[in-house]
Amino acid sequence: MSETHIDKKLWLISQNELSAWLDGIAEARTLVAPRQVSKSILYRPVANSKEIAWQSQFPKAAPPIRPTLSIKEIYFPSTERLFTINKNGQEIVLKETFPDWETVVFGVRPCDARGVKILDALFLDTNPIDVFYSRRRSNTTLIGMACQSLRPSCFCTSVGGAPDDARDVDIMLSEVDGGYLVRAVTEKGRFLIPGGEWEETGDHFPSPKFNAEFTLAKKGKLIEHYNDPYWLNISERCLSCRACAYVCPTCRCFIVRDEMIKSNEFERIRCWDSCSGKNYRRLAGGHRPRAEKNERMRNRIFCKFYYYPEQYGLGLSSACTGCGRCIEVCHAGVDITEVLLDLEKMG
Amino acid sequence: MFEPRIVAFLCSWCSYTGADTAGIARLKSPANIRAVRVPCSGRVSPELVMRTFDQGADGVLILGCHVGECHYDTGNHRAAKRIPILQKLLSFAGLEPERLRLDWVSASEGERFSKIAEEFTGVVRSLGPVHWRIKPDETITRIKPVQISPDSIPYPKIDASVKTEAIRQKARELLENNQVSCVIGYETNRRGRTRPVFIHSTDDVPRLVWNADCSNNLTGYLPGMLRPVRGKEPEKPVAVVVKPCDSKAINVMVAENLYRREQVFSIGVACEGMQDENNGLQVRCITCQEAVPIVCDALISGTTSSFIPRLSSDSREGISTINTLSPARRFEFWLEQFDRCIRCYACRQACPMCNCPVCLYEQDNSTFVGAGIGLNEKRTFHLGRAYHLAGRCVGCDECERACPMGIPISLLNQLIAAEIETTFDFRAGLAVTPSPIVTVLSGEYKEG
């Protein structure tokens, strides 16, 4: 759907060619790809293509692979050391530790890649720029994999995405009969492709049609429901855990804390936090501006569809990419699409 | 030669004085021991022991007054009950059990102190340096998967419409008669997923359903709903639909004074078991012992029940599989599991028994665990949480099902429940009784 790819070249490669290519990448750089870890599939470093969880390993009718956690954790890890503090007598030394390794992520779903774009608005496009994020961002290449179907919880088409949306990846792959179609979307992606060895193919990129499940309510409308008793009803079942936020490709709240390593060595760390937890935004003195779960759930919905797009100028798009992870992980069955549909019904 | 670092928690009245006696008598005790003086061996909470290992101790020795000689009457009863359970838990997680020892030394027993210290140091020395704390750059070795769940049993197809109707009827009756303010039950959402629902008016009663996916333990919502607001209790009780396993949680919560029994109207449903994602019986149901709720004000019984109680020892399959591994392998197994944890606290939030106002592991100034989402912190949280559920966990496995990362958390709870059952002949929730861990010893205590 995107017109931004740098050249119109398309390659058709076999599974063997793809595996060999990835093996080559894994030798020189860190290759991260969906990997089966016990019962879940996660984006994890792999030593070679054999460790990757391939769609073909699952039954034909199985929904497309979508790792439990989004690729957010590659750019914005759950815990990150910002710097260390060493105290020697009167002298205090601060030492920053920057991430510097080159990473290639394979098998990125378009919704996840979209999520990174949305995080960019905060970490990259707004001053001050987050150094840690920006280093990881420039050292990482994303190889996308178009989804051939939607999972039951997927709703990317309703929030402006598509299962084959190539806007936010560097290389896009699409499964076809007999192999994969490959195209470079950015210069960075083009650099990774061993063009000459692969068979070029016609200009046609098959794009299956997916219809939007629903349309988003207008942002102006959303704010009218700020004080609606609806939030009390819908949030009753919420358990106030943080699963929805931690699996979300665009949730980015964090807390910063100093912790002791040794008696004269400390570290400042940044860890994930979430508006669904009870202690969210607790102030000195104990006041919690989002004390009740209805306020916290409203905050989460508004953040995705109002606050964040407004604050960072995302225009019409929402800060939700429609990956549906929060729907699947919620133990109490809270469903973000249901909330959106209800708000739409309320007018 | 390797010299272990050993931390000894010594009760101020007996053992610390005992150590002094040893010194005065010029008895030799190993220099490896760092003594920490505590008011009573009962003060040595499991968190303290775990923290000590987390900080790099090779061994932890806890010494108190002999049982019956405690200066606080029953302080050491707590230690006598807690530490062996903690030892089992840490051993399950891959620490050699010999690294933790509880013993009794009175003020006059200088010789005994010296002997125990010597012995313990020798044992820990022969074990070598401890491998417990994980360093930031340490990579986890991936081990071959361990099969931990018992074989699947197909879920019996049962027509639940009779029960659905009966639940609706009861709910309507309760709401119409103004007996309760709310009925917590199950509904099916537009995706066909069964989830908790809160029915406040009779108009919503048709939303209630009963089926093979009524998995959630709804009693977890009760403490929040029945909590007094500004010293005032809610006027009306809350009705809740419970399965036999869930109903036990009410007993535990009542025993812990979270609410009074009269504040809850329990709509108990006779249960044939719940279905897992592969259309088999859920693991908790395979080994379930009760077909009918234990706490129940109205019983919804179906047609013929296919319930077959099985030996509770069947549930230990996963535990014994892990226990046959070497400590090093157990250590790796759990690290691999905890590595996936994202510290989202879904397990804790879904647990009906986890209702501390502020979790010990989430306090800003927590001295027991850092805020980071690292392996050490995650393991401390999970082991600590499992320990806090000792004698309280009713085995509903909500924690494990709530976990988005598929960590077999309930194995830890099952292990402790099994220990509590063998040691104290106690199963949580069968009556309004607090955990045996928090009460004094009964009967005769045998040292050693």
Account of the 3D structure:
The complex is a heterodimer of chains A (347) and B (448). Chain A has 11 helices and 12 strands. Chain A is an alpha+beta fold and 347 residues long. Chain A has one domain. Chain A has an 8-stranded mixed sheet with strand order 3-2-6-7-8-9-1-10. In chain A, strand 4 and strand 5 form a beta hairpin. The longest helix of chain A is centred in the last third of the chain and has 19 residues. Chain B has 448 residues and is an alpha/beta fold. Chain B folds into 3 domains: 122 residues, Lumazine/riboflavin synthase (Rossmann fold), CATH 3.40.50.960; 140 residues, no CATH class; 113 residues, no CATH class. In chain B, strand 8, helix 8 and strand 9 form a beta-alpha-beta unit. Chains A and B meet through helix 8, strand 11 and strand 12 of A and strand 6, helix 10, helix 11 and helix 13 of B.
What tags apply to this protein structure?
heterodimer; A: alpha+beta; eight-stranded mixed sheet; four-stranded antiparallel sheet; B: 448 residues; Rossmann fold; 3 domains; 9 strands; 11% strand; elongated
Tell me briefly what this model is.
With 347 residues, chain A is α+β, with helices and mostly antiparallel strands. Helices cover 28% and strands 23% of the residues of chain A. In chain B, the strands form two sheets. Chain B has a five-stranded mixed beta sheet with strand order 6-5-7-8-9.
How is the secondary structure organized here?
The complex is a heterodimer of chains A (347) and B (448).
Chain A: E1 10-13, H1 15-28, E2 30-37, E3 40-46, H2 72-75, E4 79-88, E5 91-96, E6 103-108, H3 110-123, H4 131-138, E7 140-145, E8 171-176, E9 179-184, H5 187-192, E10 199-201, H6 219-224, H7 230-234, H8 243-247, E11 254-262, E12 265-272, H9 293-311, H10 325-329, H11 336-346
Chain B: E1 6-11, H1 15-24, E2 33-38, H2 46-54, E3 59-64, H3 75-92, E4 100-104, H4 110-127, H5 161-176, E5 182-188, E6 194-199, H6 222-226, E7 238-242, H7 244-255, E8 264-269, H8 283-286, E9 298-300, H9 317-323, H10 327-340, H11 346-350, H12 375-388, H13 398-402, H14 410-424
Parallel strand pairs in B: 1-2, 1-3, 3-4, 5-7, 7-8, 8-9
Antiparallel strand pairs in B: 5-6
Helix pairs in contact in B: 1-4, 2-12, 3-14, 10-12, 12-14
